[in-house]
Known about the structure:
The chain is mainly β. Helices cover 5% and strands 57% of the residues. It comes from Amycolatopsis lurida NRRL 2430.
Amino acid sequence: MNVRSLATAAVFALIACLLAATPAQAATFVTFTPQTISVPKLPESGVVHSVTPVGTVSLDMTATQTAYVVSKMRVNDATIRSLFDNEIVCRGPGGWSKNMVIGQNVYDTNSGSPNQDVTLYTRFLVHPGVAGTVTCTANVRGNSLSPTSDATYRLVSGYLTFADTSVTNATDGQPVQSSVSTGVRGLHTGSPKVWEPSLDHFTLPSTVQGLNVVGDVELQVCLRGITCDKYKSTQVKFTLFVNQWKADGTLCKSDSSIQVTHEVPYWVHHKYVPLNKADFTVSKAPGCVPRFNAYVKAEWLSGEAAGIQGTATGLTDSEGSTTTHDSDMSHAYVLPY
């Protein structure tokens, strides 16, 4: 994780502490009770997840309001290498819903790997567009990666919060946010670059002084249909680009300072890659206007095939349920200030 991502995580933690200390904000913040999470073994076919709700928050919203919801989870002490997902499921007025999930495998406690202790942030903007109450629940989703044995791991700490209840929208009244659609965008010799997640051109109010731009990427190691050596890894470079434009359509300002390269072994399989440009200052130079775009450029450098994961489909609402939902994965958004 790069320095700015760490700094942003520290801000989230500070916000959480402040909200926890304010009784009036109790409905919009909850800490997770440390607990042991049980996850089922791999089935012979299909996917079976345990779904453990660990906290719920609610917020009364107007039709024009946008809020920022964040879930932090830290787990360790796994008995068997297992899938660990941090999922937020939100429901609101008029049947509105929006869900997000970020996942990564957690190694068993005897592995000696740093991946035996994993912290994930799931975060996005909520904008139902209709006045009413929005309720969001944080779930720990998971399964053992053994075909013969169930497993457990420990939810050590975490929280769910509406970290900002008044996020500035674009001039069209919509939040600046976009998720990668269903499927996996391949990264390999035949397709070494992917520009996702991306935010198409958007215009902000002239009063905005700066942007906090986030690109949260879910990297998958090895792809279906492509031969993969499970004892090797992939190496991918990620760069977050933020651009401001002039009224005549030419470039005003560009930033690509947020970069990170990861080498990820197959057994991690899903790697959470957070990218954050927290302080993009809006230029007031002649001709420049508050019009922007942003995207993550992923570059395959070597090793096994990989990909950027899009929306996860058909996730069970609870363990063993017949009802399902979709949850976005790789995504980008902007918090103007």
